[in-house]
Amino acid sequence: MSTYEDDHNISSSRPQEDNERTRTHQSLSSIIDSFVTSNHSHIESLPETQESQIETFRNALQVLSAEEGSTLATDLIGVLEDQDFNPKKGLPDDYLDTLDRVSLKDLTPEDDCPICTNRFVEDKYPLIVKLPCNAKTKHRGHIFDLECIGPWLKMNATCPLCRFDLSELNQKRKERLAEELRLIKEQEEEEEEEDWDVYG
Amino acid sequence: MAALPRRIIKETERLISDPVPGITAYPDESNLRAFTVAMDGPDSSPYEHGVFDLELYLPDDYPMCPPKVRFLTRIYHPNIDKLGRICLDVLKDNWSPALQIRTILLSIQALLASPNPDDPLANDVAEDWKKDEAKAIGVAKEWTSKYAKSHTASGSAE
Predict the structure, then answer these.
(1) Molecular function (GO) terms listed (chain B) (predicted)?
(2) Tens-of-pLDDT digits for all 158 residues of chain B?
């Protein structure tokens, strides 16, 4: 007696299909696992790897949402898009302290802050800073209220007017600072040794 | 509701007293962060003679975050999907707090004048656009006359 499969000239393909299904699911879940774990441990050290993993994760979700109509997957895609997952885009809080101050004397009455659009002279106690973006203005840098540029630089490392990337400069500044500190420390140690010579 | 930041008040006043040519934007009476926008299709584009309605919303973080903008009028464009969502860099990653409502609306108008099918949001439209541009432009024109009727024209026709 022939089986249903023989009659229709098909081999029992169902188990294979199941295998494939499980395999896709395994790879999907491993992708999701690796995304979740890496998201915890490598946020700061490997932004590029993380970005590509988010991409893989997004693709996995798209497969889930397209092939199985998973509304959860669709929702998660929405979350990914909304959050824009950029964990390390801004500058550290102490960066603001390093910015050059600008005095009202150096500004014209028409100069205004590009963010709040208020003229600097209208502010009774203005705190005005200049970004080191080397813009070809008379101040060689774009000028903002400290209060306005602060929240922006916490989330972004660019000048709002010319998109100059401030993070590289900040990195160099930090390295210089570390170098200076090292030199001072060396000097102090030398002095200490000299002290020993005198009093020891 | 929290007080409206001075910047938003100033922007709104200027949008009304000195409007961008071809664009009107008015805040809703019930929510001054929500704007109703009417945009003329740019000349010598498939959207010419059409008037497109958009909604624009200023989130609480504005201007640290971009406004949310969406087409309400149906439009056949590779960078605008059927929900009216717009694929435009300055509305996402390339937002800057030095940009304003008027500059964003101008960017959207410029996007109508120069569709970019290589960075699509509406995949099917972008495919059509790349396969047969002349035909796609024809469809865009058709949709414009079908959905984006100018208010004055439809008003007088009624």
Answers:
(1) ATP binding; ubiquitin conjugating enzyme activity
(2) 568 899 999 999 999 999 999 999 999 999 999 999 999 999 999 999 999 999 999 999 999 999 999 999 999 999 999 899 999 999 998 999 999 999 999 999 999 999 988 887 877 899 888 999 999 999 999 999 999 976 554 433 33
> What ipTM describes this predicted complex?
0.80
Domains in chain A, please, with CATH?
A: 15-83 (no CATH), 93-175 (3.30.40.10)
Q: Any CB–CB contact under 8 A between B130 and chain A?
A: no
Residue pairs spanning A and B at CB distance below 8 A: 30
Ranges of H-type helices in chain B: 6-17, 101-113, 123-131, 133-147, 151-157
Looking at the domain assignment, is residue B1 inside a domain? no
Q: What is the pTM of this model?
A: 0.68
From the list A115, A118, A158, the residue facing B63 with the nearest CB is: A115
Q: Which among B77, B75, B78, B80 has a CA at the least distance from the CA of B91?
A: B80
B91 located within any domain = yes
Cα distance between residue A52 and residue B56, in whole Å? 32
Query: What distance in Å separates residue B16's CA from the closest CA in chain A?
Result: 17
The CATH number assigned to the domain holding B104 equals: 3.10.110.10
Cβ-count burial A166-179 (b if 16+ within 10 Å, e if not): bbebbeeeeeeeee
Annotated catalytic sites of B, by residue?
Answer: 87
Indicate the number of domains in chain B. Answer: 1
Contact A114 B7 (CB under 8 A): no
Q: Are A117 and B92 a contacting pair at CB < 8 A?
A: no
